[in-house]
Amino acid sequence: MKLSRLSGRKVNDYLRRKGNAWKGNTFTVKWLRGAPKNPNIDPTKSAIYIGTAASVKLHKSAVKRNRMRRRCREAFRRTIKSHKKPPTIQLLVSPRSASLDCDFDDVLRDVDSFLSQL
């Protein structure tokens, strides 16, 4: 299954307000089941929609914030390949400051524990 981008201010705000929260050591996730309400998206297609949000409060350097975003997306991409078919879900991932210095294996472990909770 391929990861799809979750974009748009309204979609992200809706997830922040209505989404279920999961907190790990390296990131937090706000998630909802189902596809986002967007006319360009086919709701019958099974996919995982993932977006990332890393504020300046996390780190002053945009380079480090972008690195944390990329690491989180890559961890989800690798872990979803090995899982059985997960449900259609929307995820808003917010990296935590612990993800700056941790190993990539720690991020993979957090993703695995989140997906097993679904």
Question: Tags for this entry?
Answer:
Ribosomal Protein S5, domain 2; 5 strands; five-stranded mixed beta sheet; 118 residues; alpha/beta
Give helix % range.
25-40%
SSE run: EHEEEHEH
Distance between the termini: 16 Å
pLDDT < 50 stretches: none
Coarse morphology: globular
CATH architecture call: 2-Layer Sandwich
**Strand adjacency order, main sheet:** 1-4-5-3-2
Per DSSP, the total helix count is 3
Report the biggest beta sheet as strand number plus sense, adding barrel if it closes: 5 strands, mixed
- Note the beta-strand portion: 15-25%
CATH topology: Ribosomal Protein S5, domain 2
CATH class: Alpha Beta
Query: Any idea what the radius of gyration is?
Result: 14 Å
Number of domains: 1
Structural class: alpha/beta
Average of per-residue pLDDT values: 89
The total of beta strands comes to 5
Would you mind describing this structure in some detail?
With 118 residues, this protein is an alpha/beta fold. The protein has one domain: Ribosomal Protein S5, domain 2 (2-Layer Sandwich), CATH 3.30.230.10. The chain is built from three helices and five strands. Strands 1-4-5-3-2 form a five-stranded mixed beta sheet, sandwiched between helices. α2 links the parallel β4 and β5. α2 crosses α3. The longest helix is centred in the middle third of the chain and has 21 residues. The two termini are 16 Å apart. 28% of the residues are buried.
Q: Can I get a quick summary?
A:
The chain is α/β, with parallel strands linked by helices. Helices cover 38% and strands 22% of the residues.
